[in-house]
Amino acid sequence: MSIIEVTDLNLFYGERQALFNVNISIEDKSITALIGPSGCGKSTFLRTLNRMNDMIPGVTITGTVEVAGNNIYEDNIDVEVLRKNIGMVFQQPNPFPKSIYDNIAFGPRLHGITNRSELDGIVETSLKAAVLWDEVKDVLKKPAYSLSGGQQQRLCIARALAVNPQILLMDEPTSALDPISTAKIEELLVELKKKYTIVIVTHNMQQAARISGVTAFFLNGYLIESGETDKIFTAPNDPRTEDYITGRFG
Ligand SMILES: Nc1ncnc2c1ncn2[C@@H]1O[C@H](COP(=O)(O)OP(=O)(O)OP(=O)(O)O)[C@@H](O)[C@H]1O
């Protein structure tokens, strides 16, 4: 069953078109990897899925993005609710300058949860889901900045999970991390796929091959092809995909 349905999507930064007629359907509870050379529109596309481009002045979008059957670009969409349902994790871990506990409790508090034991429960469940609980359960009052980069990134994932999203968007979430932290996050994402839909931008093709079920290849703002990751990496339909994955450019 598909959860995201993108139809004839075009995006312009001012006069300049950055996405051209993108069509893709993304399955529920799956990992989709977005690959392609620098500047091809992967991050721009990712941001269209929870309207993060709304924050950039001069952006216009045509076409539709349906999430669970609703076009997220309709006027009556509450963008706050949308972003609660579709969380985002960035390249650099970006915890708030607060304690570990308060980072996780921030979103739930914003959405009106004040009961201490309920918040405690959410903090524990979210940290466990992000496989960070055992490392931080005795230091929840410590600043998030006292954690390592890899731990901070898992904290950011836990923070996204704390508001109960359906979808997680990730923009190169491991590119600032060492190989061991990267492996932990990859393991975590494969586990999270059981409950969440994940769309991840990655420059690391081994990573795409290791964790994703579907890979989408972008070039110059066009979605050249998307399909089962095994197929894209072994027998792509388009010669440009083959050139990219075999390292002929990018
Ligand atoms: N805020 C912005 N304003 C204007 N142009 C932008 C903006 N963000 C991106 N672009 C342009 O849109 C195009 C696509 O950029 P985007 O960042 O989506 O590509 P990308 O594939 O994610 O690249 P990278 O892999 O380097 O992160 C590029 O030409 C870029 O210069």
From TrEMBL:
| Gene3D superfamilies according to UniProt | P-loop containing nucleotide triphosphate hydrolases
Protein name in UniProt:
Phosphate ABC transporter ATP-binding protein
What species is this protein from? Effusibacillus lacus
Ordered alphabetically, the record's keywords are: ATP-binding, Nucleotide-binding, Transport
Q: A GO term (biological process) for this protein?
A: phosphate ion transmembrane transport
Keyword ATP-binding among UniProt keywords: yes
Lineage, please? Bacteria, Bacillati, Bacillota, Bacilli, Bacillales
- PROSITE patterns documented for this protein: ABC_TRANSPORTER_1, ABC_TRANSPORTER_2
Task: List, alphabetically, the SMART domains matched.
Answer: AAA
One family from Pfam that matches here is ABC_tran
Q: What NCBIfam families does the record tag this protein with?
A: 3a0107s01c2
